[in-house]
Design brief:
Structural class: alpha/beta
Strand order of the largest sheet: 5-4-3-6
Oligomer: single chain
Number of strands: 6
Order of helices and strands: HEHEHEHEHHEHHEH
Length: 196
């Protein structure tokens, strides 16, 4: 279809951008040579919106420098909802943290709140050895629609460990995401933890 439309056009090339949701397929397609011949009138780009969002969040709120003033003490991320965005945040956070890990050996602390957190973490670590090497996990298999989530008892268990540096709400449903963020804001008001 692209070739047909481009063939009928004169002037500038048509640009096509295709969102690929599956991260593995996206990486695979980016590595392939799908460039049209020079004489064809179109350009094809693949992107993953979750990858772009995670990069921007971590560029705006970098992990390095968030070590609470203690050399080697890693930030502690709390991620609510471990779908595509949450996994990309972990992937890029591990990459961003890796130079510090090499210097100090301090692992990035990541707590996940998701009904299927354990299985999703196992799958992500299986696919990415850097994440397995540089991250330490807190698993909270809690459904965000339950009273247990809104009471935020998982925050109490986190207080006995390292202080949470950032909270990322990564739910697919915008209304549930906003509701969850407001509930967490209410529970963490005295801590001044950024909720993203």
């Amino acid at each position: 279809k692209a070739r047909t439309l481009a063939f009928k056009r004169t002037g500038r090339k048509l640009n096509y951008a295709i969102h690929i949701e599956d991260p593995r397929l996206w990486v695979f397609l980016r590595q392939q040579e799908f460039s049209p011949a020079k004489n064809e009138g179109f350009r094809l780009d693949f992107f993953n919106i979750y990858d772009h969002a995670a990069r921007q969040l971590l560029r705006t709120n970098p992990l390095v420098g968030q070590m609470n003033g203690i050399q080697g003490k890693a930030p502690h991320l709390l991620i609510v909802g471990f779908g595509n965005l949450g996994k990309q945040i972990v992937t890029h956070a591990a990459r961003q943290w890796y130079p510090q890990f090499e210097k100090t050996g301090g692992k990035l602390l990541i707590s996940i709140v998701d009904p299927d957190a354990g299985r999703k973490i196992d799958m992500l670590c299986q696919d990415n050895s850097l994440i397995k090497k540089t991250c330490e996990w807190g698993i909270h298999q809690v459904d965000i629609t339950c009273l247990e989530f809104h009471q935020a008892k998982f925050l109490e268990s986190e207080q006995h460990g390292a202080e949470i540096t950032f909270i990322y709400v990564c739910l697919d449903d915008e209304t549930m995401g906003l509701s969850s963020a407001l509930s967490l804001l209410n529970q963490t008001r005295s801590s001044d933890i950024p909720i993203l």
